[in-house]
Design the sequence.
């Protein structure tokens, strides 16, 4: 996990648990981890390094997600935890242009990404520990001023060159960092009625990629160029990202946080224009969600 991801994760932890949190590093081959806590989160914000070679990327994500989670679960077996939250990803669901996914959706194998997330969630489960609340937090794309996603879009969109990828009709399920923090706090509340298991940590209103790109350009006050924004062809995305990762970008999935909504959780930033205004202090026009 690179330094920026560590800082985002630490920010979430501090805002949830207070400044007594510590960011701990250990070597993966050292499976001994000592904890003195009552609440444990195992989290990797799902912002992968698209520049690493594909084979290396595959090895790194399996190692960083699954192996480290197994170490944490092993360590957690012997301590009196109240809750265990593992940050998963919406990549659990197959990419689709037409379907809407809630936590009740059945798993379908759709390549490396879905298998990775499935194995990641399985590694985090402790069926014998009925005494603790266990959640798999299926995160969407995290939006924040310093998130990888926002930083990757900013340069091209700021100068008016940001545009749709392929058809632009693929879904982007996103969430503002503030709501990630609030969801974790909500799940840890003894009064929370959210049932254990998977929880979709996405805003209620996903949007199409072309709509997100347009709203982002408005939020950063991009100039209007005579030739308009540049569309990225699908083959370019596949060439740069590889077949599995590009599928998420080219298709995506529409994910709804049904369990949170049913429990009465209120999002601070339910719509994309709300989140972008908070980040850039400029509100884009209403973003379509169909």
Sequence:
């Amino acid at each position: 996990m690179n330094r920026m991801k560590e800082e985002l994760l630490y920010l979430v932890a501090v805002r949830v648990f207070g400044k007594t949190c510590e960011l701990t590093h250990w070597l993966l081959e050292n499976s001994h981890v000592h904890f003195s806590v009552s609440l444990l989160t195992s989290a990797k914000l799902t912002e992968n390094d698209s520049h690493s070679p594909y084979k290396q990327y595959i090895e790194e994500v399996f190692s960083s997600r699954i192996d480290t989670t197994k170490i944490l679960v092993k360590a957690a077996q012997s301590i009196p935890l109240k809750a265990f939250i593992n940050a998963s990803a919406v990549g659990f669901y197959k990419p689709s242009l037409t379907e809407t996914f809630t936590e009740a959706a059945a798993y379908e194998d759709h390549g490396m990404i879905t298998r990775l997330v499935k194995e990641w969630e399985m590694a985090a489960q402790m069926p014998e520990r009925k005494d603790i609340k266990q959640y798999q937090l299926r995160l969407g794309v995290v939006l924040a001023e310093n998130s990888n996603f926002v930083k990757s879009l900013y340069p091209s969109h700021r100068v008016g060159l940001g545009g749709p990828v392929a058809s632009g009709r693929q879904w982007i399920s996103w969430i503002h960092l503030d709501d990630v923090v609030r969801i974790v706090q909500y799940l840890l509340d003894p009064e929370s009625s959210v049932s254990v298991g998977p929880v979709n940590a996405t805003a209620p209103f996903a949007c199409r990629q072309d709509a997100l790109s347009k709203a982002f350009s408005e939020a950063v006050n991009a100039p209007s160029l005579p030739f308009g924004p540049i569309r990225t062809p699908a083959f370019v995305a596949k060439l740069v990202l590889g077949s599995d990762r590009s599928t998420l970008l080219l298709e995506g999935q529409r994910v709804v946080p049904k369990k949170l909504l049913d429990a009465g959780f209120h999002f601070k930033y339910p719509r994309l224009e709300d989140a972008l205004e908070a980040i850039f202090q400029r509100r884009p026009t209403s973003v379509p969600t169909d």
Notes: The first strand starts at residue 39 and ends at 42.
